[in-house]
## 1
Amino acid sequence: MSKNSTKAYQFTIQNNEVVGVFELKNGRVKAEKMEADELWSFDATTNQVTKTENSHGRLETTVYSDTDGDGLFSKMGVSLGGGLSTTSQALTQVHEGYKFDVVNQVITAVYEVKRGVVRQERQDDNDIFTLQGADIVKTASEHGVMETTVYSDTNADGIYTKSATTYSTQSGILSSAYHGDERDDRWSGTQSDDYYYGALGNDILNGGNGDDELLGAEGSDQLLGGGGDDILSGGDGDDLFIGGSGFDKLTGGAGSDKFKFNNIAEIGLTSTTSDVIADFTLGDKIDLSAIDAKLTTRVNDAFTFIGTSANLATTGGNGVLWFENNVLFGSNDNDLAAEFQIQLSGVMALSPSDIIL
């Protein structure tokens, strides 16, 4: 087709895939939108581009040809098929998936196929791709959790889909695991061991039962361990931690975080059962306001912080807190023994302003 023609088309083609469409009209070039229901293909032997789409319940096929090799394509014809068939539905489905460049059994490049467009994906340093039989497997480690994703080409068309994803720690495979995005995620766990990664947004992550690992990452998140021995990490933002029952490890990260305890039973009393706050710093708060400091009264009393255990002889043990050897102790009866303790790793001193009494 002559360059002097009033209307023509140009295409951006990478690895024999059409990734961009442009219309040339009256000397002006305009990018065309590639719709989700369009499948574009390029035949290098005939120098033709074919677009297939579902139009009003019928399969519409448009052929573009560059007859003189000048890079400008003209529309050669449009054909309409009958009602939707298995073939047309399959063409729509291949818009989503992945392609891989493999050289000497090594994965050298990864591409995402989305809405008929092929784009190369960035491979992070901790991403490892391997060939395992007919499948391609990616492993990546993040925050101590290994993510394994299997890609399968079930219909042998060169486009792979994710067929399985598992997450594991040193203790074994986690039964359910989820990664968030930039939105505010809301997740509730199962009876088993769960892994939740909130990523961006202000997330609410509830582990449920089981020994769970909840990572808030960015944003001001709410992390609720539930039952089991849980690991909760806030990351950035002002996060709320409620460990629940079990031996929990809580790491606030950046921001002014709050560690809330609702009853004595969920805190523990020994070094192997009591919860651990790994990085308590200035601006963080330990919230004990839901716990009745004095069982001998009918109202919900607040605790009194007395410094160290040396002051127990003067104050008595009813409704008091004291801190020594990196541990916050609490008593809510008349004897001088503690009913609960919270371990504060690396903390040498504590004041009443650090605690919501």
## 2
Amino acid sequence: MDDRGEQKLRWLQPKTYPKRGQHVETNTEEEKPSTSGYLGHISQDFIQAINSRQLSRDTLPWTYMDRRVFRATFDQAALTELDLDGYLDALRHITSTHPKHQVHVQQLMVCVEEGAQRAEVFLTVKTMGLPDDGLVTEGIGILKFLKSDEEWWCVRYRGMRGSLGANDVGG
């Protein structure tokens, strides 16, 4: 644990990515996967956690979010800026109200500015089961990461939906 109260993951072995709950140190920089691959993996883990209803801020992958500064914003006027707890509460509400809700990543692109120690992950997603079984909507998510103390932390999420907004799904 660090001063944020968060778990820190270490690299497992050459060219592999951390798995939930595994904490293994390595000794050399060559053993670390690329930053873009690492952040892409974490971003997909966020989606997997939503789909499997693992929405506790003290569990992986949510421990990659810097709970001190994390904010989530959406393009719907009905939703305000949320901190990590508010964001996870909103996800719990959506997934409990719509038990068949699933998000599937269609495309993922990672843009890393190593010198600035920041990165953005762009996700194109399809959402199913919201508000009913037959409807599929598309959306875009942007995750912003900053590097601090040799760790990458997700500090911002911005969600942009297709034709249906939060008001149409009880949000």
